[in-house]
Amino acid sequence: MLKQKMIRSFLLVLAASLVFTSMGQASTSNLKGTVDIDGSSTVYPITEAVAEEFGKLHKDVRVPVGVSGTGGGFKRFCNGETAISNASRPISATEKKLCRDKGVSYIELTVAYDGLSVIVNPKNTWVNTLTVAQLNMIFKPDSTVKTWKDVDSSWPAREIKIYSPGADSGTFDYFTEAVNKKAKASRNDKQVTFSEDDNVLVSGIANDADAIGYFGFAYFEENADKLKLVPIDGGKGAVTPTPKTIANNSYAPLSRPLFIYVSRKELKRPEVMAFTRFYLQNAGKLSNEVGYVALSKNWYNSQLRRVR
Questions:
Q1: CA distance 126 to 38
Q2: Domain CATH for 206
């Protein structure tokens, strides 16, 4: 008799557990709405991967992710048009004021590290490393460099073709500040092709033997079979961007953090809160999968505690 009572008790507990689990699943599936995101094309691969995994659990929540560049994303974000803004640099003083004037309060969250990668065409056999000083010669606003020979007298007198992120890109801001000592200070002549779309830059470099350009490490990894990665000498010898050199900042000065900015007002919506928490819980794994470098678990956990 005692044994039968114990079995009945166990079955009751099991049934209650199944009901609870079912309720939890129903609650998850009851999330609905849209989480609008825009901004950095560099951060896009991480956010898109998070959105895809989130969508498997919350099929009634739409998460469209735009790629208007960090600056373009902040314009929309501060106007209250998006819930989350992807950014490959911190928000600027001007953008902070715009958000403040529009009444948009936000949380800044760091989601991964990136090594901004300098790329040439695989047919380029003469460039095996570049110094920051040589990058400055090529990209500075008053550059007189027209050919590769102008950079190094041992290189061929072939016209350099430059592929650069556009002015709304956080990658453009970061690179120009690191290399030219002033954000947005860059040459702008007929030898330069600008685009906010990193895939356009990839295609341009892959199809131009005399090309040079730069973008996030993930875009190189995704297209490594048709691009040539250039090690950069920041003063302590040439270093190739890898997950290890990016994480320990030996790939300097082109290692950088990546961010998302979340509207506090939008966080009050259950779908935005759920997505943001899911992002931080999965950013490490997904960042590594798409070619970036994860932060520590403690760092992600510390940021999770801020999202409430």
A1: 39
A2: 3.40.190.10
Question: Given this model, what pLDDT does residue 238 score?
Answer: 97
The length of the chain is 308
- β-bridge partners, 147: 159
Going by the DSSP 8-state scheme, the letter that residue 226 receives in this structure is: G
Could you give the CA distance from residue 51 to residue 35 in angstroms, rounded to a whole number? 9
d(CA 273, CA 250): 35
Q: What is the pairing mode between strands 211-215 and 161-165? A: parallel
270 in the same domain as 234: no
Number of domains in the chain: 2
Mean pLDDT of 35-40: 97
Q: pTM to 2 decimals?
A: 0.81
Radius of gyration of the chain (CA): 23
Map residue 279 onto helix, strand or coil. Answer: helix
Highest mean pLDDT among 1-15, 23-37, 88-102: 88-102
SS3 category, 260: strand
Helices 93-101, 69-78: axis angle to 10 degrees equals: 20
- Let me know whether 179 and 210 are in one domain: yes
Residues 291 and 167 grouped into a single domain: no
For the residues 263-277, what does the mean pLDDT come to?
A: 97
Question: Degrees (nearest 5) of the Cα angle 173, 120, 68?
Answer: 35
Query: How far is the C-alpha of 50 from the C-alpha of 227, rounded, in Å?
Result: 27
Using alpha carbons, list the distances in angstroms from residue 27 to 54, 163, 280.
15, 48, 21
Looking at the structure, do residues 268 and 151 belong to the same domain, yes or no? Answer: no
Query: CA-CA distance, 80 to 62, in Å (whole number)?
Result: 18
Q: How many CA atoms lie within 13 Å of 299's alpha carbon, on the beta-carbon side?
A: 11
Contact yes or no for 258/113 (Cβ under 8 A)? yes
Q: Are 279 and 51 in contact (CB under 8 A)?
A: no
Structure tokens that stand for 186 in this block:
């860059």
Domain span at 193: 117-253
